[in-house]
Amino acid sequence: MSARLLPGGPVAASVLADVARRADALRARGVRPGLATVLVGDDEASAGYIRIKQKQAADLGFDSPHRHLPADAGQDDLLEVITGFNADESVHGVLVQYPIPGHLDYDAALQALDPDKDVDGMHPVNMGRLAVGLPGPLPCTPAGIEALLAHYEIPVAGREVVILGRGATLGRPLAMLLAQKRPTANAAVTVVHTGVGDWERYTRRAEILIAAAGVPGIVRPEHVRPGAVVIGAGVRYAGRRLLPDVDEACEQVASAITPRVGGVGPTTVAMLFRNAVAAAERATR
Ligand SMILES: NC(=O)c1ccc[n+]([C@@H]2O[C@H](COP(=O)([O-])OP(=O)(O)OC[C@H]3O[C@@H](n4cnc5c(N)ncnc54)[C@H](OP(=O)(O)O)[C@@H]3O)[C@@H](O)[C@H]2O)c1
C-alpha cells in the first residue's frame, strides 16, 4: 500500500483565495489591509522568508511596511519598532521574523506586541483565547493543520488523534485546537513527549498521527497504525536540507500522509495572511 499524498499547496491556495476576497471587500470600503514585517540581523534564510511574505502581501493587495534592524540592535530598538507599529492605525498585523539574534529576548518582544496585531497567534493573550475558546488570531501551524485535514475531507471529529510533541508553537496549541467543539475538530486528543517513555503505545493506536517533535526520522513505520493518516509537521534543518520527523517508509503503512516537502509549510504561511485580514476586519468594523 502506498499512501495518498496530502500536499499543502492546494490548501494554501484555497485559504489565500478567501483572503484575497476579504481584502477586496475591505478595499471596497476604503480600508487597505496592512501587514508590517520586522527583521533583525542578516540571516539569509530569515531575509528569504520575509521576501516571500512581502511578495505574497503585494499579490494580495496588502500594504507591507518593513523595518530591518541591524544584528547589533538592542532590545529597546526592537521594542520601539513594535510599539510604533502598535500605534499605527494603518498597520493591522505585525510579524517579527523568528529567530532574532541571541542577545535579544523574543518573548519580551512578543509580549510588547498588541495581541490583536499578533498575526503569528503566539502572544500569551491569544494562547489564552484559544484555551478558553474566544475568537482571536490562531497559531499558524496548528491552524494550517486543521485546515489541511478539512480540505482533504479527513474526518477528525470523534477520532483518536495523537500528537508527538508538546512544544509551545506546535504540539500544545494544536492539541487545544483539535479538541475544540467544532465540526473540523472535536477529536479525542492525546499528547506524548519525552516524559512518555513508551510513546509508540499511543501513536500505534492513532487514527491521525501528527509528528511535532523536530527529531528527524523519529516516526517510523512500526509506530504507525496501518491505514492511519500521518501529518509531518516537525522538521529540522541541516544547512538548507530539510529533515522531517516522519520516516519516508511510513508511506507504506499510512493511508494518507503529507509529502516530505510542501506539506504543512505552505498552510502556515496562508494562515498568517488569514490572521492578518481578520485583524484588519476586526480593527475597522
Ligand atoms: N512546518 C512548519 O511550518 C512548522 C512551524 C512551527 C514549528 N515547526 C516544527 O515543529 C517542531 C516542533 O516545534 P516546537 O516549537 O513545538 O518544538 P519544541 O518546543 O522543541 O517541542 C518539541 C517537542 O517534541 C518532544 N520530543 C522531542 N524529542 C522527543 C523524543 N525523542 N521523544 C518524544 N518526544 C520528543 C519534546 O518533548 P519534551 O516536551 O518532553 O521535551 C517537545 O514536547 C519543530 O521541528 C519545528 O521546526 C514546523
Task: Provide a descriptive summary of the structure in words.
The chain is an alpha/beta fold and 285 residues long. It folds into two domains: 30-116, 3-Layer(aba) Sandwich (Rossmann fold); 139-266, Rossmann fold, CATH 3.40.50.720. 38% of the residues lie in helices and 15% in strands. It has nine helices and eleven strands. The protein has helices spanning 9-28, 44-59, 75-87, 106-112, 124-132, 140-151, 171-178, 200-203, 264-283, and strands spanning 4-5, 35-40, 66-69, 93-96, 160-164, 188-192, 208-211, 229-232, 235-238, 241-244, 256-257. Helix 2 (44-59) links the parallel strand 2 and strand 3. The longest helix is centred in the N-terminal third of the chain and has 20 residues, at 9-28. It is globular. NADP nicotinamide-adenine-dinucleotide phosphate is lined by residues 141, 164-171, 193-195, 199, 212-215, 218, 233-236, 264-265, 268.
Could you write a compact summary of the structure shown?
Pathway: One-carbon metabolism; tetrahydrofolate interconversion. With 285 residues, this protein is α/β, with parallel strands linked by helices.
